[in-house]
Specification:
The structure holds two protein chains of two kinds.
Chain A: H1 2-15, H2 19-41, H3 43-48, H4 53-91, H5 94-98, H6 104-140, H7 152-165, H8 167-179, H9 184-202, H10 215-227, H11 239-261
Chain B: E1 4-8, E2 11-15, E3 18-24, E4 27-29, E5 33-37, H1 44-51, E6 62-64, E7 67-68, H2 73-77, E8 80-83, H3 95-106, H4 111-119, H5 135-147, E9 153-157, H6 165-181, E10 185-190, H7 193-199, E11 202-207, E12 210-216, H8 217-223, E13 227-232, H9 235-244, E14 251-252, E15 256-260, H10 264-276, E16 281-287, H11 291-301
Parallel strand pairs in B: 5-10, 5-11, 8-9, 9-10
Antiparallel strand pairs in B: 1-4, 1-6, 2-3, 6-7, 11-12, 13-15, 13-16, 14-15
Helix pairs in contact in B: 3-4, 4-5
The chains are: A mainly alpha, B alpha/beta.
Amino acid sequence: MRALYISIISEFYKSRKTLAFWAAILLPLIICGLISSGFYYDAEKIIASHYPPMLLWARYSGAALNVMGFLIMPFYVIFMAFSVNNIEHKNDTWKMLFAQPLNKFSIYSAKYLYAILLIFICLFLFGTLTYAFGHLLQLMVPEFNFDQYNPLNILINAYTKLFLASLGILSMQFILSLLWSDFLKPMGIGFICTIMGIITANVGWKYAYLNPYSLPTLALRITNVKKGADPLAFPVFTQEIWTSLIYASALFIIGYFIVTKKSIK
Amino acid sequence: MGNYAIETVGLNFNFGNQAIVKDLSLQVPKGSIYGFLGPNGAGKTTTIKILLNLLKSPSDQVFIFGKEINSNRISVLKRIGALVEQPAIYGHLTGKENLVNRCILLGIKKVKADEMLSLVGLADAANKKANKYSLGMKQRLGIAQALISDPELLLLDEPTNGLDPNGIIEVRNLMADLATKHQKTILVSSHLLAEIERTATHVGIINKGSLLFQGTINELHLLSKPTLKIEVNNIESAYQLLIKEGYEVTDKSEHVLTLPFVSSQNSGVLNKLLIQNGFMVSGLYQQRKDLENLFLDITKAN
């Protein structure tokens, strides 16, 4: 446990000055900021539409969630998996890392957990900033009715689903980025799989859920469908989420075997 | 086994079908500076990586401080500091941050980072990004990283690579200091015989994965006896004369005769002999065998 802990601390120490780390903070800040300013400058038009409070929140948070689900999220995960491993590829530091008196499993899992942590921070900020900026908009434009509905549950559920649904992609990309030091191969494969995922999810193919890259889209789609009925009742642990978790754990274990067999040339 | 910091017993290692290390039996005594000598591609770096368990050796072939490496990986690595090939440095971090990161991984106090920076003469560049360092500075930082945990055994792979003459002398002195004052064992690899001769107490020579020679530096000196080169006119007659006088001539080229060097006095006697017999000696000098010739000699002997 101690080895795992110090490895994670070291991951943070190494990456705290890199774009990968700051992207986790800047991405939600920029996107939520843009959406909120859009709402602020378009306030009159939006107010004129007389949305009920729940629908106003749905439109507002959906602006971020929809783009996140099928586009930003997969690419962000691909980028994170790449960055965490690339820091060692680029500096040729794998040999140094594995020559430390730490067990290999700790070194490997620390990297994996750190990537998960960055994705968690990113999504947590998305949720928090959506909520906070919504209320800020209310303060600045009192004619909005953001304060008449509490979207906390729906935000937590949606972002939890998005987070869990992206773990399958993370494990897959993590292995690809471990194997290849360049950006193009993992990115190219990830890109193709993501496009396939979006298409298969959108045409409603029965087995679309077997492609981990389509899971974020699928996870959020169900959210949308059920929102009309009872927005608070949609379950977090659906088929997509279980598939993602199974992919994540299986690929995590395979990744470890790749690491132990990896010859450090 | 108790006296060796490193012992390999008939170590074999392949990359696919290609044998990189063949039946290698290293014996590095505790407290020694062991010069690991060989041309590029001889298997030096591979061997060092095996000693760090970066490449997995067959079981019961590698022992560090008497412990089998595969089954004692962590406890063995705790006692080793290493610099392998290019120093492993994060370019986007400063020199100091690189060392602090190592302190985090090793669970040691961060003040060690400053100590090490002064030791390798990088205190002034502590807050400069490592990718702005010169090759020599990177090499020093690599050495600082290897030393930071105060290990009993140091594995240094070509540590003077890229250093200027001053830097080379500093590293040499540092190694001597560590071995004599701090009782460290140091395995240092190089492809330069001259470099190893100046620092090492023991030497192992490797070529194409096989150990050709292993022994103390004095034993090596016996092997690498210098030769005497004589530049002389009328070379055939000069050659005949020397043979007649009972000298051993090992090589004869167009203008140069090569004899084993015995002593300066002996060289003077030879010179006198040639001149008295009417030859014109235009050059007479002692030449040490370079690594290449030493290799040839040792391979021939094997």
